[in-house]
Every structure is written in structure tokens, then in C-alpha cells.
Amino acid sequence: MNLRAGETFRITVNGQARHVETQPGRRLSDVLRRNLSLTGTKSGCDAGDCGACTVLLDGAPVCACLTPLAQAAGRQVLTVEGLGATQAHAALQDSFLRHGAAQCGICTPGMLMAAVALLSRTATPSRAEAEAALGGVLCRCTGYAKIIDAVCDVRMDAPAAPMPAPGAAVGARLPRLDGRPKVTGGELFGGDFRCEAPLTVLAIRSPHPAARFTLGDTATWAADRSAQVFTAADIPGENRFGVIPPFADQPALAEGEVRLRGEAVALVAAPRRWPRRSISPASR
Ligand code: FES
Ligand code: FES
User: Fold this and answer.
1) Which of 42, 72, 89, 165 is most open to solvent, judged by the fewest CB atoms within 10 Å of its CB?
2) Model's pTM, two decimal places?
3) What local confidence, expressed as pLDDT, does residue 275 receive?
């Protein structure tokens, strides 16, 4: 097949034929998230390390961040948004909720997809089989035990996470109020939001460990005047920050004097494609 930049690719995602016109080498995870708005597939490392981007390609788990779009062309892709259509998938999602296996939820789509691939081969996996199948997906919250419990205890007849009877809540396992979106791919994290006209914000930092400075006429910094420059004078209230608020003692933007190399002296907000080299701070 002769693939060219900007070619149209047909992939079947969650049972639906989708056409994407883009470059063949783009990450499948990126195409799913940006072109098809399927943000349930998470992007953790874009390097094949974390497994957060795991999807099924013709039934086999793959890291979507390492899969070029061209490799998925003409094939079946299943993402977390496609779960729930079958009773078995819904039972797996319910098992994650019942066992508290979805906590922050960032790894949950990848865990679910790896589990779906396992359960399609082995309906009642052993713990060792579950650990091996999910070993490529990292979780920083659960300690893994709850996830393995959930995969090994999928039951068609069990409610997702039953509410305790009135008067019996103390000591009982409670369903997470925010649990369901974590197992359906509906949960939105910071990287899942898209802004139609985002600005790039650049910090202008001191190259010196200690220096006094003036900024001059900031209006002349951007040759085309498309950027907005912010200095300490633009900060409403007190120009201070710190890790422990009561002890905040560092200026957010230095005023006339820097006390460490890399201290920010100004911020420049500009349209996304604004070329960095066109900034020329007139400082001294
Ligand atoms: S985002 Fe693909 S493995 Fe981490
Ligand atoms: S639930 Fe938070 S990283 Fe796994």
C-alpha cells in the first residue's frame, strides 16, 4: 500500500466505521483522542511504558501510543467507550466498581481493556493469569490487589456496588459516587479538555543567579503585537507564592531584582503558533 501524508484511513472503532484524513504515522491514541474525541483512551507516557493507552486491535491489546494509524487501517479497534455493549463487559465494569478497583481512574481504561482481552480467552482466570495479563498497565493508586480481585470475580448477577441498608453503613463498603464514569471512559482529566483557541504562555526567566533589572517597554517585545506581556505590576493583590501558604515568601514574578537563576520576571501569552524566537525582551 502506498501511504501518503494526508491520506484518508478507514478504521472500525467500537463497531462503527470511521474515516480519518491525516498522516499515516500519527499515534492511534492521538487520533482516537483528538480526531474522534474518544478521550477514554488515556495518554500517560506516549512511550509504551504505562499502558494507560491500551486498546484492543482485532481483539489483541496494544499500546495505542505506539501504534501508527496506518497499522490500524481496515482493522477493528475497541476502546473503553465500546464496553458495556455486552453483558460480559458490563459485568467487568461492575466488578471494578464493586471491588473499588477504579480509584483516581487514570489507569482504569487500560486495565479494563487488558482484562477484556484476558477474559475473552479465559472466563475464570487465576490471579497469576490476571497479573500477567495486566502487568503492562501501571497503577499508582490501588496497589493492584483490588484490580486483580475485580478481574477474577466477574459475576453476571452481582450489582455494581450495592448501597448498604439503612443503619448498616458504618464499616460497610460504599460505592464511589464518582465511580461509574471511571469505568466507561466518561471521566475527564486535565488532558482530556480541548480549548478551541488556546494561548501559549511563556515565562521569561533570569539567566543570572542574582541581578537587578528593568524591563523597558514590554509593548515592543512582540514584533507583531499579537502577544500580551504580564509583569509583577499586573498581579492583583500580593505578589507572593510558596508551597505552604502561610509562609509564602517568593514573588510570583520578580520585581526589579532576581535572587535565583531561572526566576520568572514576566509572562508572555500569545496565539498557539506564535514563534518563540520573535520575543525580544528589552531588559538589562
Ligand atoms: S501512553 Fe501509551 S504506554 Fe503510556
Ligand atoms: S486508579 Fe489511579 S492510577 Fe490506577
Assistant:
1) 165
2) 0.76
3) 55
